[in-house]
Amino acid sequence: MKKASFQSMPCPVARALEHIGDGWSRLILRDAFYGLRRFDEFLTSLGIASNTLTRALNPLGAHGLLEGRPSQDNTTRLQSPP
Fold first, then answer.
1. Residue 6 and residue 40 in contact, taking contact as beta carbons nearer than 8 Å
2. Cα(first)–Cα(last) distance of the chain, in Å?
3. Helix (H, G, I), strand (E, B), or coil: what is residue 3?
């Protein structure tokens, strides 16, 4: 079955589905909304390998759904954009 494309729809929610269609992305966004911010927190919560988490986070950041920000201890934390 071919995946439906929502890219041409004027609705921002429909267009966002193009970038959060896979399961890991949805779980990452769920955890981010619940307050997780650090890479190791996502690793623990999701129980996935670090390379899998990195591959899932990169498109979320590239499309503006999450962004990395330096924390006080000089590591990067994820934030939902304003």
1. no
2. 36
3. coil
CA distance 47 to 53: 10
26 token code pair: 């949805």
| 28-to-10, 16, 34, 44, 73 alpha-carbon distances in Å | 25, 14, 10, 12, 23
CA 15 to chain centre: 15
The model scores a pTM over 0.90: no
Residues in the chain: 82
CA–CA distances in Å: residue 35 to residues 1, 12, 42, 77, 78: 35, 23, 10, 11, 10
- Cα–chain center distance at 43: 13
CA distance 17 to 26: 10
How confident is the model over 12-38, as pLDDT tens digits? 877 777 777 678 998 999 999 999 988
